Known about the structure:
- The chain is α/β, with parallel strands linked by helices.
- The protein has helices at residues 20-36, 44-47, 51-54, 59-70, 86-98, 113-142, and strands at residues 3-7, 40-42, 75-78, 102-104.
- It has a four-stranded parallel sheet, sandwiched between helices.
- The radius of gyration is 18 Å and the shape is globular.
Amino acid sequence: MTLCYVSGPYTKNNMNGKTQEENIAQARQIGCRLWEKGFSVIVPHENTSYFEKDCNIDYNTYIRGDLDMLSRCDYIVMTPDWESSKGAIIEKDYADILKIPIYVYPELPKLSKNEIENSLILQNIREESMNQYRKNIQDVLSQQ
């Protein structure tokens, strides 16, 4: 499937006046629209939601991880208020360097006919692989 990355403010310390919860909800909503259109989606807001409370790593480590995920994506979709976020600006600049197409919500990428066809082919291959994997597991378990 074609992979999209959602970028925008996360913390309440951004200049958009939203709470952290509102920023996460906004990114999740955009991610949902993309899933509904047939994309696979990375929403980093959800991936590490509130990790800063329990995980002892610094901001730059999160950004490096986000850029690593972004580098594997086909598109980046920015929230409408992305410019209020230092991290989103870094992600957008990185996408520019990698020549990843950039959209600003509500504009969303569209799947081409080839992407849709390739997605269906890959889905069939994954299903066949998983069926073979399950059969192999059953064979091993039945021999024990």
